[in-house]
Amino acid sequence: MRVARYLVERRLLDIGQYTAQSTRNPNIFLTIARSMIAIAQISLLALASADQYFVPVGQNSADAKCSGDVSGFSLFCTIDIDRQVTAYGILVLLVVIASGFKPRLLSWVHLYVSFSISTAIALPDGGDQAVMCIAFWLAFASLNDPRTWGWDKRAVPNTKSTVQSYFDSISVAAIFALRLQMAYIYLNSAIAKFPVDAWQDGTAMYYVARMENFGSVTVLGDFLRSLTSVPILTASVTWGTMLCEIALALGLIIGGRFLYVSVLISITLHLAIAVFLGLVSFAVIMVGGVLAAGSLQLQRLRSDILIYKTLTRHPAQQGDLLFRNAGE
Question: What pairs with residue 181 in β-bridges?
């Protein structure tokens, strides 16, 4: 009862306090999400040479795509050196970004790096376009984070300055905007499948499991092909994928406890995609995007769990914790 009463009182004290809380209690889930996405991009550049991403497509040459209105601002276009050297430079930047160093500043560098990769290479990975959207909102979401290291869990001093208040509001608005962005991505993906015959009749995963360009090999590949050889299982996986995407999107929109369900669906769905289809970097990027979108509530859940553990071990600290968090 003591713990339940504390949580109720805390919720009442937290009304209208999202912005203040986001300043005083660093959002560790934003750091986790940013690092996950950067690591996925590192794998893209580290495990393949630049020549494998700059190849002739149709009538286009193997050079970087620098002729568009905005693609010319890519690092691959603005720096007149060998593109492999440019790729190594971007790789170094991504390593620093993944380390969590100076999130307020390097989130903007991350946005530019993501733009450079997505717009210039001829063979983009499945998550590149999503990364640009995610990195855009993460840059604004990190404006109120003055820490040197994103992994530092110590509370950030509240300066109560006008500029910091603006940054707080922008940060929270950006995270909510990212929730809508991720919801749109999943909902659009599900709706786009509706008119396709293979998705309507439940056979799409049968063909996906047998595509030559990607997928798992050896035991995992054999298992997936065996699984999709059974009509009822193929239909279940096919339609289940669409239902997961819709449920994930709705959970992000509705929020509350449904958001936690969305996070679990995202992890499960993309783990399966990584394991059975081999799209590992895409899976990591999308899970990172969902974690960032739900970071405010995930951070609150983490705080509640830590407080619950403290109260059960040290009941005498109840009053101190209540009033300390009331000021956050």
Answer: none
Residue pair 121/62 in contact (Cβ under 8 Å)? The answer is: no
Stated pTM of the model: 0.83
Check: CB of residue 92 under 8 Å from CB of residue 83: no
Low-confidence stretches of the chain (pLDDT beneath 70): 1-25, 55-65, 67-69, 122-126, 155-160, 213-218, 314-328
In Å, what is the CA distance from 267 to each residue of 247, 261, 286? 13, 10, 9
Distance of alpha carbon 77 from alpha carbon 281, whole angstroms: 24
Give the long-range contacts of residues 299-308, CB within 8 A, separation 24 or more: 299/25, 299/27, 299/28, 299/29, 300/21, 301/260, 302/28, 302/29, 303/25, 304/7, 307/6, 308/3
Residue 66 makes CB contacts below 8 A (sequence gap 6+) with 72, 74, 76, 77, 120
pLDDT tens column, 257-314: 899 999 999 999 999 988 888 888 899 999 999 999 999 888 888 777 877 777 777 6
Cα separation, 36 vs 137, whole angstroms = 16
Q: Is 239 helix (H, G, I), strand (E, B) or coil?
A: helix
Cβ–Cβ under 8 Å, residues 111 and 135: yes
Supply the angle between the helices 128-141 and 280-293 in degrees, to the nearest 10.
30
